Amino acid sequence: MSITKLTSGLYIVATPIGAARDITLRALDILQAADVIAAEDTRNTKRLLDIHSIRLEGRKLISYHDHSSPSRRDAILKVIEAGGSVALVSDAGTPMLADPGYHLVKLIKEAGHKVVAAPGASALLSALCVAGQPTNQFFFAGFIPNKEKARMDFLQAIAGIPSSLVFYESPKRLTKTLAAMVAVYGADRMGAVCRELTKKFEEVQTDTLGALQQQYDARDTPKGEVVIVLGPPVIHALSQDDVDAQILTALKDFKVKDAANEVAKATGLSRKDIYDRALRLKDS
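^ that's the sequence the OP posted. Answer follows.
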């Protein structure tokens, strides 16, 4: 079979997230023809190449991951400057989506060279397809921090986003994360825990956050990579008494301006209206 030579550049190649056949014909062509393959884990990539009968035949398979040095990026740039082609692959899915690649792509583009996407499998998109949550707008938050305070701060920082949220998480931290989400977003917000996507034991559990927390608290630690998809925030109608109570609580810890900012952020109401109301309550 003849192999068409690739034009010089960096090729971002999506690979399967589970089922080995979830790879595009174009991706296989690129992996067959690239002068160099830069892989997050060369052992995993070698197995994928073997499955699809792709031989290196003298071509280089090198490692490129989150901890790769600038010198490794420079070496890849030199291949492209010399007219060569480099295929970038992660362990699974699409590079650049919570996977290595940003600094390399930035370097290649700033040097004036071509960057080409060969799209395909993605845990992010697969989870959105099966979670049963709105997909017209979504925010990909990536991996959740490990430590408790950092986790809570992270979740609170994106609490006001009026769309579905998507997170990657380790199964070992799933119950702690669900508990934190209940604390920050409320037990009645809808969500889905998607596990082992495209694999034999794929599982998707869709329910309220409170119900999901109870379910996974009662189970053994699940296996496999996890994607959590939350639906948009639950909007509760606030009475004036509810708003006044939040303002009075905030005034105990903040000056009027700061209290108004905090309450406006929490409720989505006009900061000016909250500020005016806070002044009246403070003087009453």
